[in-house]
Amino acid sequence: MNNLNTGIDYLLDLNARHSQAFMDLATERRRYRGEHPTEIAALKCMDGRLHLPVMTQTALGIIQPFRNLGGIFDLGWPFFQAAMNQWVEYSISRGRYCLVFVTYHFARGDTHRGCRGFHYETDAARNAAIKLKEQFDRVYGKGAVVSIVCGIETDLDALILHGENDRSIDLANTKETSQLEVEEMLRLLYSSMPERVIRDLTPLVRGNIRHIAEIRASNRPIEESEHKEWVLAVGRGFDWLHVINTAFIVGPFDPNLAVAIETAARLLKNNFDEGRIDPSGIVLLTSGVYRDEAGPEFRLAKEKALFLSKFTLDIIQDKVPDLKPHLQILTGRTDLNTRKFVMIDRLDKHTKQSVA
Ligand SMILES: [Zn+2]
After folding, report:
1. Ligand 1 centroid – CA 35 distance (Å)
2. Centroid of ligand 1 to alpha carbon of 98 (angstroms)
3. 118 CA to centre of ligand 1 in angstroms
4. pTM above 0.85?
5. CA 94 / ligand 1 centre spacing (Å)
6. All domains in the chain, ordered by first residue
7. Of 110, 277, 287, 291, which alpha carbon lies 20 to 30 A from 341's?
8. CA 326 – ligand 1 centroid, Å
9. Does residue 298 register a pLDDT over 60?
10. CB contact at 8 A, 105 and 158
11. How confident is the model over 340-349, as a mean pLDDT?
């Protein structure tokens, strides 16, 4: 692996480029929102391959990601239910529907390219997604919040849409491509889905069909989709960090956060032990998020990021101590308006120097 493509400076540069792209897309996002007002969230595994904006050819910032190990969530989790309900209330206050993608992932060519969070058992991952969707239905009913189970197949980056009445469609096999055909396909698949949501889901489906065609045409080597993550990212605001094989992302949602961090640290250590990544470029990255620099939110984001860094380091020290000497540490906060990551602290292990 190329040295230049890992480490803290690479991450800062990556963020700067994506923040610029995000800001450049502001006009496009406003136009898109005007046309497709439904708010969209995706509950996903922390696996770095799962980048829905790329897979659906959708502008950054349209799909709100929530990530955790295996894509495992529970609306009973205090922090997760607060974050989710806040998002729902925000959407409803603006008169918008909420569409929640409840996802699991697998690879059609080899089960061992599937989800390590579920020990590569696709049935178990899918069943967990189905149960979570049922929980959403139980809590939010069939009104403004619509949830769908969606498989993400990573060999072709194809979405598998699980409909009502146990029907499902693998978008890698679909022949429908026009707007009218896709809308009709979705109406058949989701007979109770509001028409507004059908029309706002359609561009994502068509984008995925186009993306699959591009992946097929490019003959993307499977090698690219193997486990080479070299960043352990803890916190929120990482939708800029979507480069394949880059990061294990642990959201702060799971009440057993320590276990999720330990699991991610072990996976990272595995990548290192098996020689898949450059040991000199391993980074622990933490981030809190804010929108308003004037208020306490900005300062709370700093406290959160610093806490998460120390918390994660303590777990690694305790559970995966061999990983610790290899870690570079980058702590910061992400401005949700620009996706700019602003550094609070960095530690480059070679110099042992901390720069504020
Ligand atoms: Zn996974």
Report:
1. 33
2. 24
3. 7
4. yes
5. 33
6. 36-222 (3.40.1050), 227-355 (3.30.1330.140)
7. 277
8. 24
9. yes
10. no
11. 93
CA dihedral 222, 102, 259, 341 (to 10 degrees): 80
Q: What's the confidence (pLDDT) of residue 355?
A: 45
Q: Give SS3 for 37.
A: coil
**337 and 343 Cβ atoms separated by less than 8 Å:** no
Ligand 1 midpoint to CA 117 (Å): 5
- The sign of the torsion formed by the CA atoms of 172, 173, 178, 180 equals negative
- Cα 292 to ligand 1 centre (Å): 33
- DSSP letters for 291-350: S-SSSHHHHHHHHHHHHHHHHHHHHHHHH-GGGGGG-EEEEEEEETTTTEEEEEEEEETT
Q: From ligand 1's centre to the CA of 111, what distance in Å?
A: 12
How many whole angstroms from 50 Cα to the centroid of ligand 1?
9
Please choose, from the candidates 192, 208, 129, the residue with its C-alpha nearest in 3D space to the C-alpha of residue 162. Answer: 129
Question: What's the distance, CA 48 to chain centroid?
Answer: 7
Measured in angstroms, how far is the CA atom of residue 178 from the centroid of ligand 1? 32
> In angstroms, what is the span from residue 248 Cα to ligand 1's centroid?
10
Cα(204)–Cα(58) distance, rounded to whole angstroms? 7
Segment 185-204 shows an average pLDDT of 97
Q: Give the distance (Å) from ligand 1 centre to CA of residue 309.
A: 23
Give the three-state DSSP class for 228. coil
Between the CA of 113 and the centroid of ligand 1 the distance, in Å, is 9
Mean pLDDT, residues 75-93 taken together:
94
Give 234 or 51, the one with higher predicted confidence: 234
Q: How far is the CA of 147 from the centre of ligand 1 (A)?
A: 20
pLDDT score recorded for residue 95: 95
Element (H, E) at 216: helix 195-218
> If you average pLDDT over residues 329-341, what whole number do you get?
96
